[in-house]
Amino acid sequence: MQILGVILVALVSVRLLQSIIAAVQSHSNARHRTQRTLQLLDEQIAAVQALRVQRESQQMHWNGYRKFKLSKKIKEARDVCSFYLVPHDGKPLPRYLPGQFVTFRFQVPDPNKGQMKSVVRCYSLSEAPREQYYRITVKRVPPPARTNIPPGLISNYLHDQVNVGDLLDLQAPRGEFSLDPANSKPVVLIGGGVGVTPVLSIANAILESETGNDVWFLYGVRCGEDHAMRDHLRQLEQKHENFHLHVRYSQPGENDLCERDYDTSGHIDINLIKSLVKVTNLDFYICGPPQMMDSIVTGLRDWGVAEDHIHREAFGRATLSKVANKDETQLKHDKLDSKKTLSIQFNRSNRNLTWDGSHNCLLDLALEAGINIDSGCRAGSCGSCEIAVKSGEVGCRVEPGINIDKGSCLACISYPKSELILDA
Ligand SMILES: NC(=O)C1=CN([C@@H]2O[C@H](COP(=O)(O)OP(=O)(O)OC[C@H]3O[C@@H](n4cnc5c(N)ncnc54)[C@H](OP(=O)(O)O)[C@@H]3O)[C@@H](O)[C@H]2O)C=CC1
């Protein structure tokens, strides 16, 4: 009887336990379902918001040039100044992606002709996206030592002639050297000298978005006097555990102190990157002097970093060596083509020139012969040098960073594949 009682109690307990487990499971399933539903709702809300922001941003986007007023000019280092620009019409600004640049059109005196001339230049935005203002950070370009080349026309004009309250003409931000912080992975940002500007914009944006993704920030400058944004970067380091800053001076000054002002001395190179970052499957963004970008990109490739994880800013003709996802065979073929001797007719200027392969691009050929073609970034990104090709075929040294009209080319990245008639 006692045994029967025990069995009965055991059976009842098992049933009870089973129903408790079932209840807990159904509760837990319900909780999971609720959590999943909430997660889906969150995702849908985020998607709707992203779409709204994108639509609003598209509505606020403008074509051509818009007037901006210089609201603030701040010295960041020796010969480096930040310029804060607010829209003159007081309307909101479109969102841009950190790392993008703006194109300016300046009216400056032409010393040769005694009248004003229009000059186009591109500058990276150096702040995380803001709705109220844009910020660029510009270094005064001195004349190169021991040559007759004049100092940087526009950088000196900005530093010396442009004052708070002045109006400037700007195109809307654009550029492929950028990322969306919301969808980003851990990144390695490498800036050399004033080339730090776009990577600073990217770092600020990622840290503000609070994704928690790791950001390695390697900054190479000559010495303390050139060290822009020093306090800002150290503050970021103190505030964000996921921000790993390393500053390297190539020529530390007498008053520069290692571990206080900078971390190590020398050039930023692949060995430093390997020692800090350790893994290759990250996104690498590099902007700085061309020789620095070249050696780092080569080092990253040799280390095994995938081509589509290497991003470099390409401003200026010296930075064009990056081959943006072009088919290698096609490229070899293009290179051979670019060496042919061909006749190039500039029909508006009524000039006929010969392409012998010694120029980097059609823009250089034209400018050297005194044919005036507008240009800005010199890297196929700003569109200033777009010209119509009336007949013939052109090749591109790199993929254009913007959409151009069919039958046109960007002179700064184009070379002839046949005899050409150009509308310039
Ligand atoms: N928004 C902007 O203004 C942008 C600027 N840039 C480009 O950024 C560049 C920065 O100019 P600037 O500030 O004058 O730079 P600097 O000439 O001051 O050079 C910056 C640092 O890079 C070092 N460096 C030179 N060669 C190498 C190398 N092979 N490997 C690693 N480090 C090297 C320099 O060392 P050392 O003492 O040996 O010279 C120096 O410490 C310019 O070429 C500019 O066109 C690019 C995009 C945007």
Structure, described:
It catalyses: 2 nitric oxide + NADPH + 2 O2 = 2 nitrate + NADP(+) + H(+); 2 nitric oxide + NADH + 2 O2 = 2 nitrate + NAD(+) + H(+). It is an enzyme of class 1 (oxidoreductase). Its cofactor is FAD; heme b. InterPro entries: 2Fe-2S_ferredoxin-like_sf, 2Fe-2S_ferredoxin-type, 2Fe2S_fd_BS, Beta-grasp_dom_sf, Cbr1-like_FAD-bd_dom, FAD-bd_FR_type, Flavoprot_Pyr_Nucl_cyt_Rdtase, FNR_nucleotide-bd. Keywords: 2Fe-2S, FAD, Flavoprotein, Heme, Iron, Iron-sulfur, Metal-binding, NAD, NADP, Oxidoreductase. The chain is an alpha/beta fold. The protein has four domains: 1-60; 66-170, Translation factors (Elongation Factor Tu (Ef-tu), domain 3); 183-313, Rossmann fold (3-Layer(aba) Sandwich), CATH 3.40.50; 328-422, Beta-grasp domain (Ubiquitin-like (UB roll), Roll). The chain is 31% helix and 25% strand. It is built from eight helices and 19 strands. It has helices at 2-60, 153-161, 196-209, 230-239, 270-277, 290-303, 328-337, 362-368, and strands spanning 66-77, 80-87, 101-110, 115-124, 134-139, 167-170, 187-192, 215-221, 243-249, 264-265, 283-287, 310-312, 342-346, 351-355, 386-391, 394-396, 408-410, 414-416, 420-422. The strands form four sheets. It has a six-stranded antiparallel β-sheet, covered by helices on one side. Strands 10-9-8-7-11-12 form a six-stranded parallel β-sheet, sandwiched between helices. A hairpin with a 4-residue loop joins strand 3 and strand 4 (115-124). The longest helix is centred in the first third of the chain and has 59 residues, at 2-60. The radius of gyration is 28 Å and the shape is globular. The N and C termini lie far apart (110 Å). Residues 317-329 have low confidence and may be disordered. The site of NADPH dihydro-nicotinamide-adenine-dinucleotide phosphate has 26 residues, from strand 4, strand 5, strand 8 and helix 6.
